[in-house]
Amino acid sequence: MVRNPKQQLKGADWPPEQTLRVLRQQLDRLQAFKGKLPRAVENDETLWKQITEGCLIHGFGEGSHNLSHYYSARSAGRWNMGGVSERQLQQNYNERIARFEATLLSSIAELEASIPEAATRGVYDAGDEYAFYKDLKDIMARANADIFIVDNYLNTEFFDLYVATIPPGISLRILTDTVRGNLEAVAGKYANGNNIDLRIGSEVHDRHIFVDHRGWMVGQSIKDAAKKKPTYMVELSATLVPTMREIYEDLWSRAKVVLRG
After folding, report:
1. Span 128-168, pLDDT tens digits
2. Which of 99, 134, 161, 192 is positioned for an S-S bond with 73, CB 3.0–4.6 A?
3. ∠ CA 24-245-136 to the nearest 5 degrees?
């Protein structure tokens, strides 16, 4: 459908609780697609995509990052004008299902932070950047073995504020979309004597923090969190952490190595 430039984007019109319920249902249904041949589930996948797209529009609005991530996931893979081989078709399908799952998990975590029963789990008003800093610093300081940071807008300030407080002997991995400014040089200085790995990948879109066996989702990039806009840092449920971490471990394995500690 071609949209009139003057036509306003549809806003969210579902309550968070309804959107959360439907997205959880769609996440459960998505599991049945894993490991299948794409042609065997083509009709079921089409129906799943239609329901999921409608839910995201009703729950977040047409201009939301949630819907943009969904569209990006829907077109995941490699394509060319002459068609694709059966092998590439399967690879595209596998990547698409993984991206769909990441999109739903991140949207579910976002909703969990907005509904009343989750409202006390790390929501920060604009200007509460010190409260956010203190909470994240405390989380990272309690690490026993490893920290895995996924953030598509990291800068050198992250190292000054957070990395310097990490206990010795902790493995720190950082996955971002590109190296900005002198990030690589600063990371290299902190890596001297510490176990720090830095990689970049174009598929990084969201912000996640994994500390040992726990995980959090952050609404804004760590460098800007709560400075000018409200944000959240919601802990993922224990059942979601393994699935979410698997998704980003896969992105990590495909990312380009910038610094290896």
Report:
1. 889 898 889 888 888 889 999 999 888 888 888 888 778 88
2. 99
3. 100
Amino acid identity of residue 35, one-letter, is G
CA–CA gap between residue 60 and residue 140 (Å, rounded):
31
- Distances in Å between the Cα of 10 and the Cα atoms of 13, 15, 202, 221 are 9, 15, 29, 26
83: left (phi over 0), alpha (psi -120 to 50) or beta: left
**For 113-117, what is the mean pLDDT?**
67
- Distance (Å) of CA 142 to CA 34, 169, 182: 35, 12, 28
Which helix (H) or strand (E) element contains residue 196? strand 196-200
The pair of structure tokens assigned to 224 is: 């800007």
DSSP letter assigned to residue 200? E
For residue 56, which of 78, 74, 76 has the smallest C-alpha distance? 74
Does pLDDT of 33 surpass 50? Answer: yes
How many residues are given for the chain? 261
Q: Domain 120-259 maps to which CATH number in 3.40.50.800, 3.40.1280.10, 3.30.870.10, 3.50.50.60?
A: 3.30.870.10
Band the pLDDT of 6: cuts 50, 70, 90: low
- Token reading at 135: 């909470």
Token pair, residue 209, equals 């923090």
Backbone angles phi, psi at 12, to 5 degrees: -70, 135
